[in-house]
Design a protein that fits this description.
single chain; 199 residues; 5peptide_repeat; mainly beta; 2 domains; 4-stranded parallel sheet; PA_immunity-related; Pectate Lyase C-like; 7-stranded parallel sheet; 0% helix
Length: 199
């Protein structure tokens, strides 16, 4: 079975059905690589780089990305439960890291205080995710389930949450100017205004 080597550079490679849970890697660079149906659950990628890579149908739950850089990475139909995204390396000179998640499960994860403007989350399960003090201006967070997720001092200006459900966003504690919400779900925003809705 194919494995990965510390310190290597992998360019334009396709990795299919790699089963490497609980593995430890350091200083590997991946550029223009595609990972299909791979299992890296509980693995550690320290001081690595993922540039313009794709993950399709992968299990990345509890992955440790300490000091790892991600740019132009897309995740589709993948499981990313319990990931602490704050451990990754997010250089301040990037305004947009071009991260996209589609049809993924990111429950129990943390984006606490991260600046990830223009983040793309589409049709994702985001139960009990920590978005507190984060900056997500101009992000797309559409058709997602935010049950139990935390939004406190979060910047959601001009973010698109259309079609998303189960969010609890206090308009007095978060920045939501220009944000888009579906009409019915947006009624939950009124709870914090102390108004009573009647038929």
């Amino acid at each position: 079975m194919e494995t990965l080597k510390d310190g290597e550079l992998y360019f334009d490679r396709l990795f299919t059905k790699l089963k490497l849970p609980e593995a430890n890697y350091e200083r590997i660079e991946f550029e223009d690589c595609c990972f299909s149906e791979c299992d890296f659950s509980q693995s550690k990628f320290h001081y690595c780089q993922f540039i313009n890579c794709e993950f399709n149908g992968c299990n990345l739950s509890l992955i440790d990305l300490s000091s790892t850089r991600l740019f132009g990475v897309s995740f589709e139909a993948s499981k990313l439960v319990g990931v602490d995204w704050t451990k990754a390396h997010w250089p301040i000179y990037h305004r947009d890291f071009e991260l996209t998640f589609s049809d993924c499960n990111l429950s129990d994860s943390s984006f606490f205080a991260l600046v990830l403007n223009e983040l793309s989350l589409k049709t994702c399960q985001l139960h009990d995710v920590d978005f507190r003090e984060g900056h997500f201006k101009n992000s797309v967070m559409s058709d997602c389930d935010f049950r139990g997720s935390l939004f406190i001092q979060t910047n959601l200006e001009h973010a698109d949450l259309s079609g998303s459900t189960n969010y609890a966003i206090n308009v007095f504690e978060n920045r939501v100017k220009g944000a888009k919400f579906s009409r019915f779900e947006a009624l939950s925003l009124l709870e914090y205004l102390g108004v009573e809705l009647v038929d």
